[in-house]
Amino acid sequence: MSLSIRNQIPGTVTAVTTGEAMATVKVRLDGGQDVTAAITLDAVKDLGLAEGSAVHTLVKATEVALATGPVEGLSIRNRLSGTVREVATGAAMATVRVSVQGAELTAAITKDAATDLGLAEGSAVTALFKSTEVSLSAV
To answer: Which pTM was predicted?
Structure first.
């Protein structure tokens, strides 16, 4: 299946915590960082997810936020440190490619945000995305 989601990062499930209708799934990305996905119990069962399952984490570029300073006091679980590889700026939006350990992420942010943050090739950033915005694909 081909998908339009730019961010498709391989990893391995390290834990599945189930609730009544939802579950949190922790994934160790191939580069060593951890990501948490909040998905339905039905999805966990349908995908056959368990510790050791190979998956791809999927995150839309529009759901990735970037920070250039310390990140504290947020409920956002997924925080990947990286370096800006490229900034492509249009009239209203910017596409920022970020190298994170073992992978690359794309963030679609406003042009004003990219300017205000002073983003340029080589800038240190933290990519942030909520666990509810992560989808998983079984490999």
So the answer is: 0.94
